[in-house]
From TrEMBL:
InterPro entries: HTH_MarR-typ (IPR000835), MarR/SlyA-like (IPR039422), WH-like_DNA-bd_sf (IPR036388), WH_DNA-bd_sf (IPR036390). Residues 17-155 form the HTH marR-type domain. It comes from Dermabacter hominis 1368. Pfam families: MarR_2. It comes from the Bacteria. This is MarR family transcriptional regulator.
Length: 170
């Protein structure tokens, strides 16, 4: 695919587009860092944002378990990165890995009672951070507008990854 671009003129970003792109990169990276730090620095919680998201996704599933490959897609991790993160969480007793009951070949991540308990402690901390770092600076209307704009970038195949059950909290 890279060879297809050889010899073709690249439509470079103008100054305004460059500034918008850099603002997007900086802001999204900084926001993830701040949300993660809030969870990590609370001694009762000590979760990274990706670990928190894994607990949320497991808690929203019907049986508190999700096939590892599906979970990787939902939390936007490579399979190897997810395996490493889940292994770390398993050592803490927050999740367990088991063979899939449906086919016996695949692996599923299962939310443990300790994982659910920690999620219940972490959720209010996370929600306060989302409000502090996003909702308060933007206001509800702009926050929802931001989601509407970002939704234009979500492919149909990825749409199910951002949907959530009404039973879970974020």
């Amino acid at each position: 695919m890279a060879n297809e671009d050889v010899g073709q003129e690249v439509p470079w970003l103008d100054l305004d587009e460059q500034e918008a792109w850099r603002t997007y990169l900086f802001t999204t990276t900084r926001l993830k860092d701040r949300l993660s730090q809030t969870l990590e620095q609370d001694p009762r919680i000590d979760l990274s944002l990706p670990e928190y998201e894994i607990l949320v996704r497991l808690s929203e599933s019907e049986s508190d378990c999700v096939r590892m490959s599906d979970l990787a897609q939902r939390v936007v991790h490579s399979r190897s990165r997810l395996t490493h993160t889940v292994a770390r969480m398993e050592k803490r007793g927050l999740v367990a890995r088991e063979r899939s009951a449906s086919d016996g070949r695949g692996r599923v991540a299962v939310l443990t009672a300790a994982g659910r308990e920690l999620l219940e402690q972490a959720a209010p901390v996370h929600v306060r951070s989302v409000r502090e770092f996003l909702l308060e600076p933007l206001g509800r209307e702009d926050f929802l507008e931001l989601a509407r704009i970002l939704d234009k970038l979500v492919s149909d195949e990825d749409r199910e990854c951002i949907e959530f059950s009404t039973g879970g909290r974020d």
